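Researcher: Predict the fold of DNA-binding NarL/FixJ family response regulator.
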Amino acid sequence: MLNIFIIDHRPIPRFGIRYLLNQSLKNFQLHDFNSVNEISSRINLPTPNLIFIGADPELPGIQILQRLKRVFCDSRFIVYDLETKAGEGVKFFRSGAHGFLSKLSDLDSLSQCLKTVMDGKLYLDAKDLTMILEEILVGSKPSQRSFRQFTLSQRQKEIASLFAKGMGTSGIAKKLGLSPSTVSTVKAKVYQKLNINNVVDLKSTLAQTRSDL
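Model: Structure tokens for DNA-binding NarL/FixJ family response regulator follow.
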């Protein structure tokens, strides 16, 4: 029996993957989680053969993948990331993913991805591959792009700027009248879109895109 994990706090994507699995596989057991931290809180979990990584309110997808790879090194990983631009999917493969789906992917792509990954191969949608090739030809790095190219919202820009100035989550939440959890979620989305992992990288990116703020 295959053991499959889904990590996504959104019920609709989880339902869609569950439906696809029911159509494609016969003998499997599905475990779904709202966040990666929820995995450690459950006991007697089996070792997963396959892990779907979607949206986590606490961590960006790349950090979830890196964290789980250390624990489940023999599992197969499919990342479906609707926030990251398709051309940036290569970063997930570098971190150990076996399949990547972006906002350009459709249900047929998801089905083909599942089959390919379960056959022991890597999967990248043709549309995503085209985007990656364009990135190579242009020769630009994600960290050098402007905020407009990453389509950050005004709120995301505002919170990113405050973090870069040295403010903490609680201070930003108080200043903007938001909950700390909301600020943390926005921060995770910003890190994900800018392909960065810490405040130092954030400051560097802001310095390079100052004219766009």
